[in-house]
TrEMBL record:
Its EC number is 2.7.4.25. It comes from Algoriphagus sanaruensis. Its main location: cytoplasm. This is Cytidylate kinase. PANTHER family: CYTIDYLATE KINASE (PTHR21299:SF2), CYTIDYLATE KINASE/PANTOATE-BETA-ALANINE LIGASE (PTHR21299).
Length: 224
């Protein structure tokens, strides 16, 4: 059976990552979290006190940036490494969420990370989620999904996720962060978040997790 590329794009906090991960598992595909790469790059800027708005500092950051993924042998979960250090939890913290869209709007950073994403997906059999996967990273993807959900639902889900990690964050703060990221991601000059004409839109507001996974797996089986 041939393998395809599944591109899942959409607004912040729609459950793209957990859905994409489950779809990949159901199909025996590799899951690639492109957002984790932008988050790791942001952490690199923060750790080294570099500014994404100063070209020399962007240059410096890119020269010293190494992002990779490894499967944890105990949990079998894919984890993100920044310059050899495990940063999976750190990149999900609010201090990174608050700065990531600013870093992700920089052309040179996108160029470097898109090249790495294309390399990771070149043999197909991948599910990749992000903002520009169906438009820029894999415009020829055999299946493109655009996920949405209303802001209140997204914020409540994100708050629950953070709580499960022991991180108590105010709902209003999460809502503000999600809508601010949506605004920056959709209006930036470089690869803005857009719904492609050939993408299937799935509104997950009233869907259970199992339902949204099943819908995408079904679409994938038709596309393979
Ligand atoms: O997917 P996640 O919410 O972890 O992504 C974090 C941020 O990374 C997004 O708000 C966006 O600014 C950026 N991003 C991007 N392009 C992608 C994936 C993520 O610009 N393909």
């Amino acid at each position: 059976m041939g393998k395809i590329v599944i591109a899942i794009d959409g607004y912040s906090g729609c459950g793209k990552s957990s859905t994409a991960k489950a779809v990949a598992k159901a199909l025996g595909y590799t899951y690639i979290d492109s957002g984790a790469m932008y988050r790791a790059a942001t952490l690199h800027f923060l750790n080294h006190y570099l500014s994404p708005s100063v070209p020399q500092e962007v240059d410096k950051a890119l020269k010293t940036l190494d992002i990779s993924f490894q499967i944890n042998p105990d949990t079998l979960r894919q984890e993100t490494y920044l310059n050899g250090l495990l940063v999976e939890d750190e990149i999900r913290a609010m201090r990174v969420s608050e700065r990531v869209s600013e870093v992700a709007a920089v052309k040179e950073i996108r160029k470097a990370l898109v090249a790495q994403q294309q390399k990771l997906g070149k043999h197909k059999g991948v599910v990749m989620d992000g903002r520009d996967i169906g438009s820029v990273v894999f415009p020829e993807a055999e299946l493109k999904v655009f996920m949405t959900a209303d802001l209140e639902t997204r914020a409540a889900r994100r708050q629950q996720e953070l709580l499960e990690k022991g991180d108590m964050v105010d709902l209003k703060e999460i809502q503000t962060n999600l809508s601010e990221r949506d605004r920056i991601d959709s209006s930036r000059a470089e690869s803005p978040l857009i719904k492609m004409n050939d993408a299937v839109e799935i509104d997950t507001t009233n869907l259970t997790f199992e339902e949204q996974v099943a819908q995408i797996v079904h679409l994938a089986q038709k596309a393979i």
